[in-house]
């Protein structure tokens, strides 16, 4: 079974995906993790999609991105969970996420993972581009202040002004790209709710015995 959760940064989608995946015994997969891994690889290897497209794409096509049993992110078997969450990777991943070639690579990697697992996947266009035929689709959103507060909780010690600037930068690239609300998704406004309340609302809509949709990597 595939469950998608779409929304912009700071809406709580990753935490909610974790909660739902643990409740159902599914794998949790974040679209952002895949773009972050590719961004991290490009930064550490000095690759540039604009100036050296063919070499960059050839290298990125060799990557293996997966999760261990504790949902730690593995890049070619190495745990990069913490490394892919630094500021440079965060900001640049939103930029490269709009590149069509990289989107194609990420989509294929994600679909390979979905072929083998029951998955809860969160991102910004997973219900439209990655898994448009998902068994359940959710779109969550919140006001700007709520999003800033949630990101500050995720990143203790980071100045509010820096968090707000990062959020604005990421929104700029996300909204400039192909971010859309997925058709047929349950839409949930989360500003005045705890994530536990949102989780309870979402989990009540999911029937784990529903006949599953087949996701093929070459769709």
Kindly list the characteristics that best describe this protein.
219 residues, alpha/beta, Rossmann fold, five-stranded parallel β-sheet, globular
Compact overview of the structure:
The protein is α/β, with parallel strands linked by helices and 219 residues long. The protein has helices spanning 13-24, 31-45, 53-60, 87-96, 100-116, 126-130, 144-154, 160-176, 195-203, and strands spanning 2-6, 27-30, 65-67, 73-75, 78-79, 119-123, 136-141, 186-189. It has one domain (2-203): Rossmann fold, CATH 3.40.50.300.
Q: What gyration radius follows from the Cα positions, in whole Å?
A: 17 Å
CATH-scheme architecture = 3-Layer(aba) Sandwich
Q: Any low-confidence stretches, pLDDT <50, length ≥5?
A: none
* Pattern of helices and strands: EHEHHEEEHHEHEHHEH
How would you name the CATH homologous superfamily?
P-loop containing nucleotide triphosphate hydrolases
Quaternary state of the chains: single chain
What percent of residues adopt helix (DSSP H or I)?
A: 40-55%
**What is the overall pLDDT average?**
87
| Largest sheet, strands/sense/barrel | 5 strands, parallel
Number of domains: 1
